[in-house]
Amino acid sequence: MSVDEPSGADRPDTASVTARQKQMVERSLREWRGDLDGRVVVVTGGARGIGRSLCEGLIRAGARVVAADRTWDGAEDFRKQLDAEQGLAVEVDITDDAQLDAAYEAVTDRFGTVDVLVNNAALVSETLFAPTGHRNTLDTTDQDWEAMFGVNVFGTLKVIRRFIKPMQEKKRGSIINVVSSGVLPVAAGGGYHGLRPWTVEMPYQATKAAVTALTFYLAEEVRGDGVAVNAIMPGHTRASWFDTTARAFNDMGVVYFMRPAISEHLLPITLFLSAQDARGAAGRLYYVPEWNYDHGFGDYAAWLDHELPADMEEMYRRLEAAMPTYERSGVPHLPFDAQGALYTAALADLGSQENWAGGSNQ
Ligand SMILES: NC(=O)c1ccc[n+]([C@@H]2O[C@H](COP(=O)([O-])OP(=O)(O)OC[C@H]3O[C@@H](n4cnc5c(N)ncnc54)[C@H](O)[C@@H]3O)[C@@H](O)[C@H]2O)c1
């Protein structure tokens, strides 16, 4: 079989994959039906990407949703939709104290309280170092680090300081911090090493590591107030920057890591964490694809996006056709390093490995 021409048999039936994804979304909405009715959920970075998708799901789950974002450019339709659906769109830069005070006032004026906060807003590498998202650490400037820590760490903390107040007063609430699997250490032989330190992601991963540590420590400090603080790691997900980055890699002759998941794969765990408080899970760090698998919401492959634009479909089909078959009895889905090994093998087969400066997979 030519690597350029994957056989029809190897291609998934995209209509049935998409139908199954829709079924899993509907099932999650059924599973938490009623639990979020009328709850006020604030999602930062809610105008686009993962944040928008979470807002749409939370609205369908019956929550009153506040989508807060630095800019609504290109998202005016969603802004109108939020107004029409009893939600609230707020324009706020989370690094700005005065704007945050005004946003907090707007939310409490409108809804009187806050039940859930999803800290999703972030400056990602692909935006700071557009379009590839890659810059070697020694080539980054202090300003790069200040900009990323300003949004991802200090901005997140500024948001928490304000929006946690009504939760503490009510002795009930949930905070969900969106981090990244790139922060994970792995133990081997008495030493710890990074899960995938070759992906060239400073200072982004340093900020996500800081938010992960904040999650663990803050969770214990506010557990007694009834507020749960947890973190989630999405995995490789098609967000607002994705197509531009993937195409930039394609132009360099490199396939941009593997086919991404659709943003909806984050909905079940977000509903679960939003519906509970510190009497449930608190101080935990969840990897979303594993959580989905363990809770009957499919493995990672079940959420992959098979409705990409034609040029990107062609790129990922080429990669998938070149990937070695991986089968190990008793392992129903691929651990991260096995995926990485397959990807590297496929790139080598495609002859494009030498163009690769380290694949980013936030
Ligand atoms: N997409 C992935 O593969 C992936 C993987 C791991 C983690 N994440 C995390 O998921 C979250 C969402 O990212 P995404 O991939 O959807 O990216 P995205 O760029 O599509 O969305 C990020 C949103 O945050 C907003 N934002 C940025 N700076 C802001 C500021 N100062 N104030 C207010 N809003 C601001 C942006 O305008 C944008 O709407 C981030 O925390 C990111 O680190 C994403």
UniProtKB/TrEMBL annotation:
Which SUPFAM superfamilies does the record cross-reference, listed alphabetically? NAD(P)-binding Rossmann-fold domains
- UniProt-listed InterPro entries: NAD(P)-bd_dom_sf, SDR_fam
Pfam families attached to this UniProt entry:
adh_short (PF00106)
Q: What is its EC number?
A: 1.1.1.-
Segment Disordered: which positions?
Answer: 1-20
Write the record's keywords in alphabetical order, separated by commas.
Oxidoreductase
Please list the GO terms describing molecular function: oxidoreductase activity
- Give the family this protein belongs to, as stated in its UniProt record: Belongs to the short-chain dehydrogenases/reductases (SDR) family.
| Name of protein | SDR family NAD(P)-dependent oxidoreductase
Source species of the chain: Pseudonocardia benzenivorans
